[in-house]
Design goal:
The chain is mainly beta. Helices cover about 5% and strands about 45% of the residues. It folds into three domains: about 120 residues, Immunoglobulin-like, CATH 2.60.40; about 100 residues, Immunoglobulin-like; about 140 residues, Immunoglobulin-like. Strand 13 and strand 14 form a beta hairpin.
Length: about 425
């Protein structure tokens, strides 16, 4: 199967983003990059521009203080740089250095933990819209990693979103209907200035971008079409390394070798043909935890690292044209060599990754070289019953304005 998105005046942004924003993934010594949203208690990359904030954090395995700087840039709805002056979208400095850091304590793997709140007293975005934060050492044009986030104005536009079963799609899909309405902004004045962006579970890579509404009436834009579909996929898989002394339910065994822990996850197998299985998950999120600590905030610098060993029993790579990856919020759903499984004997596919202690959701992603498409359903299938969280971002560019404003935000859980 492939993760199909049906088109009706829709731009598939995986293609668009390849020409605009391209994420920079961290080098091997930078681990556990997390843009955490305290308001939602997960990695949802969207927050109110007034009164809410993000926490960006990461670990440097080259332990000891290193000066890391950051820079914030403003982007349009299609993730092209807006090109506007810094003073138009930001109060304070667009770049600064990260002051909050802490060395690891009582861990086998040494590291230094860095933390940054956005906005902060020195850097305060003032326009609702899309932003990219770059982290770099000396050259802002050569960042060590980037992350994107969005800030919305909750006073101008109300966004209502409804999820339902996709009709006539083989019980694979979920359909989204959205209504954007406002008593302050005349949305019918320039309907071409509107852009609706819907993503699933906070994954920027799994989304629809819709330019034209289905109906326009009385400053209300309705997006209701049979083709506004997402594959339901399956519930996320999970593993638990909050303790490294005894194996968790998803773990085959835990051992220590060469001064580091190793966690062997139970072998996965393909389930696409077994029907829907209701396994509670956290929609791809991850949480850094160490059960030995009374205060889980101490996990930032006192949780250890472990080599996590994944294995999948059988996969047809179509003569090497299909690539198999492990993805989730822990790697921002990025298909990088570090998370690509390799074929071993007896058609077993294996991967070993160094990850920090905690609770993780993950899924298998298959990249097809022949079609340039990514599927999240090849291994475990797609079902309309799957619990997912959809987020709708409504952008609007009023007449005469040179950039897109994120004027409304809504979300829906398919179980509600």
């Amino acid at each position: 199967m492939k993760s199909s998105i049906f088109l009706f005046a829709i731009c598939i942004s995986n293609f668009c983003l390849a020409q605009t924003y391209t994420e920079v993934n961290p080098p091997d010594h930078i681990k556990t990059v997390q843009l955490f949203n305290p308001q939602t208690n997960d990695q949802t990359p969207v927050a109110r521009i007034s009164g809410e904030y993000f926490i960006l954090s990461f670990d440097d395995l080259n332990a000891g203080f290193h000066e890391y700087n950051y820079k914030i840039e403003h982007y349009n709805a299609d993730w092209t740089p807006s090109g506007i002056f810094q003073s138009e979208f930001l109060d304070g400095y667009s770049s600064d250095y990260i002051r909050d850091y802490r060395n690891s304590f009582n861990t086998y793997q040494n590291y230094t933990h860095y933390r940054l709140q956005i906005p902060n007293q020195n850097t305060r975005p003032k326009l609702p819209g899309n932003y990219v934060i770059k982290v770099y050492t000396k050259d802002e044009n050569n960042p060590i990693f980037t992350r994107r986030f969005a800030l919305y104005d909750d006073q101008r536009v109300t966004v209502g979103i409804q999820a339902e079963r996709g009709i006539g799609t083989g019980n694979l899909n979920q359909r989204l209907n959205v209504i954007a309405s406002s008593g302050q902004v005349n949305l019918t004045e320039t309907p071409d200035g509107a852009t609706l962006f819907i993503m699933k579970n906070g994954n920027w890579e799994d989304h629809l971008r819709i330019k034209r509404p289905s109906f326009v009436q009385n400053s209300q834009l309705t997006y209701r079409d049979q083709n506004h579909l997402f594959e339901g996929n399956s519930e996320y898989l999970w593993f638990d390394t909050k303790t490294l002394e005894v194996p968790a339910m998803s773990t085959e065994r835990v051992f220590r070798q060469d001064s580091l822990y190793h966690t062997v996850i139970r072998t996965d197998f393909q389930k696409w043909n077994l029907g829907y299985f209701d396994e509670p998950d956290v929609n791809g999120a991850f949480y850094i935890r160490n059960v030995r600590l009374n205060d889980q905030n101490l996990s930032n610098s006192q949780a250890d690292y472990t080599w996590v060993h994944f294995a999948l029993d059988e996969f047809d790579d179509a003569g090497g044209t299909k690539e198999l990856y492990i993805v989730g919020a822990f790697n921002d759903w990025q298909l990088t060599p570090e998370y690509r499984l390799k074929k071993m004997e007896n058609n077993f596919w294996e991967l070993s990754v160094l990850l920090k202690q905690g609770y993780y959701n993950y899924q298998y992603a298959v990249y097809d070289q022949s079609t340039n498409e990514v599927s999240y359903s090849t291994i475990n299938g797609s079902f309309w019953q799957t619990e997912n969280l959809y987020q709708a971002l409504f952008y609007y560019r009023p007449w005469g304005v040179r950039y897109d404003l994120l004027m409304g935000y809504g979300e829906v859980n398919t179980r509600n």
